[in-house]
Amino acid sequence: MGNENSGEPACNVPTRATVVSIIIRDFIHLTERVSATNLAGLMASYYAKVGAQVEQQQGVLTSISNHGMLVTFFDVAGADNHARRALRCALAVALIAYQTRFLIRQSFPEQDFDRFGVGVGIHTGELVFAEFSHQAEGQRIVCGHAVSIASLLSVKSKDLDWNVVCSEQTLAEVGSGISTRRRGTLGADWLKDPVQVAEVVVVREGEAGDSMDATLKLDRGARSGMYRAFDPAMLGNESEQGEDLPKVPGYRCLKAVGRGGMSSVFLAERSSDKVLMALKFADGSVSEDSEVLYRFVEEYGLLEQVRHPHVLQIFDQGVTDDALFIVMEYLPGGTLKQRIGKQGISGKEAWRVLREIVHALVEVHERGIIHRDIKPENIMLREDGAAVLGDFGVARRMHEVRMDGRLDAIVATPYYMSPEQALGVAEDDRTDIYSMGAVFYNMLTGRKPYTGDTLESIAQQHLRAETPKLQPEYQHWQPLLDGMMAKDKSQRHSAKTLMAHLNTYPAPA
């Protein structure tokens, strides 16, 4: 008998279905350089996430090996057709590959591994389940030409440099709502006719192109992220009248609150308890092997590892329509930049914000992470005014920070960047302290520490100009600012020594 939940048919009964073949590329490279124990842990994490997607889309796992698996999707009463569910699963697997790639790089920083990637082949055709018995034990396998075609497409995905290779037969079965990017023709010696294929990048629901209704949920502890997402200074800008809002299962997007070149942020209500959240979407397709998307996935992994009251909290990551998204806490207080304005803030409030963010940096740096872009726009405020460090879009692991030597490769914001960022030389945790010193000056004065007409002129001031002077009422904090903004980072505070130094100052009245 078939499995009623999965739609698995009885043995020896021909049925039309969609086959998804998933292979891990260059798997032998991994096996040669990782111990069996470590490899087992990596693969257990990968296959657990893939298995969750197979179950969510009501697929049937029909075979699995150390580097590949075959999943079959049959029609299920009350569910979308098998081809549409298969494509949803394939796009989710593309995201899981990004996450696994980051996990490997984080776990084995000393190894020069090839980038972890998968190839997914999808084909629709007639299949039969067969059962082979040996004494008391039996095994069911799926047989048919569609299995061979799907396997061929997954292998050929590497030559095409696509993640998801879908046959035209499957696309015809899916119907509307599919976006493709590239198309081609694949053949083999044993094929009578070549197969027409396409690279699938989006699965949308409905004739109007609404969002995909499947969300990838990750267990706590999954690794992933890092691209600069949006300019928080735009928080508070509502979406224009009639602008389409993303549709994500479990959330109701209310309005756009931030937008940039790489992603957008929306205020959303969580359906289960009506709590307000912020949903941050990366622009671009999840099936696209893009460094931008990979870095967005990394950002989740970096933030997920930090649990601190003054670091932005995240709750989930998923995939919908043609974008990845992160579910984050919503901070109604806006940004520190908005709070500072052109007049600055009181010394008492500036001192509190400084202590809260430095306290957060102690935790961030102890985990080996450098933020690299501390500025008023990236410090947000809770409703009670508490400061929160967010946007780890260009954050890096300390051992990953690379020397570049090109001025045009600066990743920080010019007004708050450190001398080492201006030079393009190696950064460390004290880079963040310099930037925080520049923010402290901005809070107290309403002015940027250095200004200029060009990037080069501002960079030269970070390298050579004296530390900016505070107004008379704040002169007692000048030595503190000098220690934070020392040009020579060997003379600069670390977050831990700075926190200890702050504790020696009396709280401002």
Would you give an account of this structure?
By secondary structure, this protein is of the alpha+beta class. It has three domains: 15-203, Nucleotide cyclase, GGDEF domain (Alpha-Beta Plaits); 232-329, Phosphorylase Kinase, domain 1 (2-Layer Sandwich); 336-502, Orthogonal Bundle (Transferase(Phosphotransferase), domain 1). It contains 13 helices and 18 strands. The protein has helices at 27-33, 36-56, 82-107, 145-160, 168-174, 291-304, 336-340, 347-366, 419-423, 429-445, 455-464, 478-484, 495-502; strands at 15-24, 60-64, 68-73, 118-134, 137-143, 164-167, 178-186, 195-203, 247-248, 251-259, 263-270, 276-282, 314-320, 323-329, 369-370, 379-381, 387-389, 396-397. Strands 1, 2, 3, 4, 5, 6, 7 and 8 form an eight-stranded mixed β-sheet that branches. The protein has a six-stranded antiparallel β-sheet with strand order 9-10-11-12-14-13. Strand 10 (251-259) and strand 11 (263-270) form a beta hairpin. Helix 2 packs antiparallel against helix 3, helix 3 packs across helix 6 and helix 8 runs antiparallel to helix 13. The radius of gyration is 26 Å and the shape is elongated. It starts with 14 loop residues before the first strand and ends in a 7-residue tail after the last helix. Residues 1-5, 205-242 and 397-411 have low confidence and may be disordered.
Short descriptors:
about 500 residues; Phosphorylase Kinase, domain 1; Transferase(Phosphotransferase), domain 1; six-stranded antiparallel sheet; 18 strands
